[in-house]
């Protein structure tokens, strides 16, 4: 989703992200997960930085046992309410992803919504090491990123704005080095003139750097898709889905 913390817009961000991410994309991503990773009712998935739970709920509705982790209370509260209402096999935990550890052994871990790129190299290494420890031998990691170097160099825009519902977003971005990253400042303006400024950073890793981090933490990169299961990633495409397998 985003590594910007929500304050004034705590009651609005779910609707904002739902407007940005079409429901049919979530359906297709869940279908890919079920098929590619051969998930069956009772399979265990860890959804790190799960956001409002679009993958968590979609998988749980298919009988997958999901542990959902996010640091925002509003996200976790909504997931718990939905899981209870629909009697879904979900455990929702409010915690920073980087400090989350588990004795459970998962078939698949998800790092969707550009979430791995929220972390600098040291913290990303720690996160990947923790994920490795929580996976079964031969288990998988699925990373969704739009901050690979091969994407970001082409897509970088210094100034942008968009309008979602009654809120306008004005964003100023910088592409910086050592470490390579994009720092951005977003000003949100409501219809009645209220404003809030948020700052964030996405760290930029090339395919080679991502592969090196994965190998260093016990993974093997298997595939990179731009459309999961259908189209291999090529230079400049707007998003990537990286499939990595835990080495036995």
Brief overview, please?
Helix content is 30%, strand content 34%. By secondary structure, the chain is α/β, with parallel strands linked by helices.
Describe this structure in words.
- With 248 residues, this protein is α/β, with parallel strands linked by helices.
- It folds into two domains: 8-147 and 204-246, 3-Layer(aba) Sandwich (Rossmann fold); 150-202, N-terminal domain of TfIIb (Single Sheet), CATH 2.20.25.
- The chain is built from seven helices and twelve strands.
- It has helices at 13-20, 23-36, 54-60, 73-86, 121-134, 149-155, 207-216; strands spanning 44-48, 65-70, 90-94, 106-111, 135-145, 159-164, 167-176, 181-189, 195-203, 219-227, 231-232, 240-246.
- Strand 7 (167-176) and strand 8 (181-189) form a beta hairpin.
- Helix 2 packs across helix 3.
- The protein is globular, with a radius of gyration of 18 Å.
- Residues 1-6 have low confidence and may be disordered.
Query: What Rg is obtained from the alpha carbons, in whole angstroms?
Result: 18 Å
Helix content class: 25-40%
Identify the overall geometry. globular
CATH class of the largest domain: Alpha Beta
The CATH homologous superfamily of the largest domain is named Vaccinia Virus protein VP39
In terms of DSSP E residues, the strand content is 25-35%
Unreliable residue runs = 1-6
Please give the number of β-strands: 12
Give average pLDDT, whole number. 92
Distance between the termini: 31 Å
Total helices: the number is 7
Kindly name the structural category. alpha/beta
What is the CATH T-level topology of the largest domain?
Answer: Rossmann fold
Indicate how many domains the architecture comprises.
2
Describe the main β-sheet briefly: 8 strands, mixed
CATH architectural type of the largest domain: 3-Layer(aba) Sandwich
Strand order of the largest sheet: 3-2-1-4-5-12-10-11
């Amino acid at each position: 989703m985003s590594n910007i913390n929500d304050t004034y817009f705590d009651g609005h961000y779910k609707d904002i992200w739902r407007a940005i991410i079409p429901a049919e994309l979530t359906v297709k991503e869940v279908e890919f997960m079920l098929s590619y990773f051969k998930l069956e009712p009772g399979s265990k998935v860890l959804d790190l930085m799960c956001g409002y739970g679009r993958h968590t709920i979609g998988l749980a509705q298919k009988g997958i046992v999901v542990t959902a982790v996010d640091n925002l209370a509003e996200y976790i509260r909504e997931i718990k309410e939905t899981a209870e209402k629909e009697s879904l096999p979900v455990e929702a935990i409010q915690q920073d992803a980087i400090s989350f550890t588990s004795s459970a052994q998962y078939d698949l871990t998800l790092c969707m919504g550009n979430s791995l790129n929220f972390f600098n190299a040291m913290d990303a290494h720690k996160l990947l090491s923790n994920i490795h420890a929580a996976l079964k031998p031969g288990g998988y990691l699925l990373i969704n990123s739009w901050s690979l170097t091969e994407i970001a160099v082409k897509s970088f825009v210094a100034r942008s704005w968009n309008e979602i519902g009654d809120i306008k977003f004005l964003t100023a971005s910088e592409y910086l080095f050592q470490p390579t990253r994009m720092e951005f400042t977003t000003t949100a303006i409501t219809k009645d003139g209220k404003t809030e400024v948020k700052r964030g950073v996405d760290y930029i890793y090339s395919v080679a750097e991502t592969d090196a981090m994965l190998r260093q933490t016990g993974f093997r990169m298997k595939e990179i898709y731009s459309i999961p299961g259908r189209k291999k990633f090529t230079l400049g495409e707007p998003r990537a889905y990286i499939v990595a397998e835990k080495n036995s």
